[in-house]
Amino acid sequence: MITVDKPALEDGPYILPVSDDDIDRAARSLKALSHPLRLKILCILGDQAISVQDIVEAVGTSQSNISQHLAIMRDKEILMTERKANKVFYYVRDEGTLRLIGVMREVFCTK
Amino acid sequence: MITVDKPALEDGPYILPVSDDDIDRAARSLKALSHPLRLKILCILGDQAISVQDIVEAVGTSQSNISQHLAIMRDKEILMTERKANKVFYYVRDEGTLRLIGVMREVFCTK
DNA sequence: ATACAATATTAGAATTATCTAACAAAAAAC
DNA sequence: GTTTTTTGTTAGATAATTCTAATATTGTAT
Question: What is the value of pTM for the model shown?
Answer without folding.
Answer: 0.85
